[in-house]
Structure formats: structure tokens, C-alpha cells
Fold this sequence. Notes:
Blueprint: E1 3-13, E2 23-34, E3 38-42, H1 49-57, E4 62-71, E5 74-75, H2 81-87, E6 89-92, E7 99-103, H3 104-116, H4 122-135, E8 146-147, H5 153-167, E9 171-175, H6 183-200, E10 203-207, E11 221-226, E12 229-234, H7 237-245, H8 248-251
Parallel strand pairs: 3-10, 3-11, 6-9, 9-10
Antiparallel strand pairs: 1-2, 1-4, 4-5, 7-8, 11-12
Helix pairs in contact: 5-6
GO molecular function, one term: ATP hydrolysis activity
InterPro entries: AAA+_ATPase, ABC_transporter-like_ATP-bd, FeS-cluster_ATPase_SufC, P-loop_NTPase
Pfam families: ABC_tran
Amino acid sequence: MTTLEIRDLHVDVAQSDADAEPIHILKGVDLTVSSGETHAIMGPNGSGKSTLSYAIAGHPKYVVTQGSITLDGEDVLEMTVDERARAGLFLAMQYPVEVPGVSMSNFLRTAATAVRGEAPKLRHWVKETKEAMTELDIDPSFAERSVNEGFSGGEKKRHEILQLGLLKPGIAILDETDSGLDVDALRVVSEGVNRYKERENGGVLLITHYTRILRYIHPDHVHVFVNGRIVESGGPELADELEENGYERFTAGVRA
Ligand SMILES: Nc1ncnc2c1ncn2[C@@H]1O[C@H](COP(=O)(O)OP(=O)(O)OP(=O)(O)O)[C@@H](O)[C@H]1O
Ligand SMILES: [Mg+2]
């Protein structure tokens, strides 16, 4: 049983011009995600959803100025990025990074070794990755390609879920893993997330703009994210309401 607890989280982002004032993006986020739960976060562009995921993962540009993040009571903000991964946090990024010169198979084995604390036995590992790739309909030739280099948008997203299946984190943050997927890929990726939920009893924080993925991955809680904070939480019906009416009733009077 794992619990990620976020309390009154305020985050600034450093601007590329080092002399410029940092921008205040998250303005008091409270959220608790436990094993076996799926939380969906929906909100307008630029409201700070990816900032939240970066702050949890430990991106150096996103500076926590107030509040706390804990994982089973341990202070996540005190941990380095790789300590966070070892502690059981996983982030599938909205825009997965290309790593030329590092093969997918090398990358996955190195990541699995780091997270598990020992190198997976080679024969077992080959079988494990093969099965995981088959489940996600990924051609075996991808194993020898450089990480994400030249991958289509949908192929990148599929590989994020491949990592999820192999790294088996306690809590997974999926930032728009559904965006850019065709209907078949959406189903395959959703099934991958659901397998992870079942096999690992994982907790999922799913950031999305569309209710279509929520027809496959059923959220227990839906949160509306506007202007750096959660402004309303509810059950799955809240997602349908948002799809129908947009964010107007939440954004009136605030700059999203
Ligand atoms: N590194 C950065 N430098 C400058 N501004 C940034 C940086 N990162 C985020 N921001 C700004 O912070 C705000 C929140 O961005 P964020 O990416 O968190 O939004 P989002 O809710 O994920 O939006 P989307 O739905 O479009 O993905 C935006 O106005 C964005 O321009
Ligand atoms: Mg985003």
C-alpha cells in the first residue's frame, strides 16, 4: 500500500532569463493518491497540470516554495530524481524526451536495474520485455532503436506504458498519455494501464483533456484544475459535465 500526499503545494518555475523573476504557477494543491485508486485531473491549457507532475518527479526548473509532498510519510522533496523513482514514483511525460545513441533495450534494462536495486537476470529479462512489448503491440525491432528518436507521437506514448509495465512503480503519473493516439492505440495503451493497476495494485494520476480515455480507464475521482489549483473534485460524472459544459463555470473571473 502506497500513498502519495500533496499538501498546499506552491511551485515557481525559473525563467530561462536568469535575471527574470520566477513565475508562480501552482498556488496551493492538495491531493492524495493511494494504491488501487485512479484520479483524473482535467483543466484548461496552461493551468499547471504538467507543472504538478514535474514538481512531483523533481524537475530542477520547478521550485517548491511552500507545502509538502510525501510518499508513505517520507519527504519526497528531500529526494533526488532517481531516489523518487526508486521510492516508487513514475512519470510518463506529456512530451517524452528523445535520447539519441541509447537503445531502448539498454535504457529499459538500466532503468529496471536502478529501480529494482539489482540487474534483472538476462534470460528472465529478455522474456519479460518481449511479453511486455507483445502486450502493447510494439514491434521487436524497436528494442534496438534509440530511445524515442524518430518515434511517432503514438509510438512514444506506447513506450511510456512499456516502461510503466516493466518498472512497476507504486504511483504512476500519466501526463496526457492519451493525446495523439489513434483509436486502436488508445485501447492498447489503456489496457496496459489497466494491467498495471491490476497486477501492481498501482495508484494512477491521469492528466487528460478528453473523456474518451476515461471510458477505458475508470477514474474513482475527477479533479478540475484551474489556475494552479484544484477547484473542484467529484466522481466520474464530473468528467462528463466538463465535456458538456467546458470550464467556464470554474474560470469565470480567473485567468486560467
Ligand atoms: N519552463 C517554463 N518557463 C516558462 N513558463 C513555464 C515553464 N513551465 C511552465 N510554464 C508556464 O506555466 C504555465 C503552466 O504550464 P503547464 O505546462 O503546467 O500547463 P498544463 O496545465 O500542463 O497545460 P496543457 O494542458 O497545455 O498541457 C503555463 O503558462 C506555462 O507557459
Ligand atoms: Mg501539460
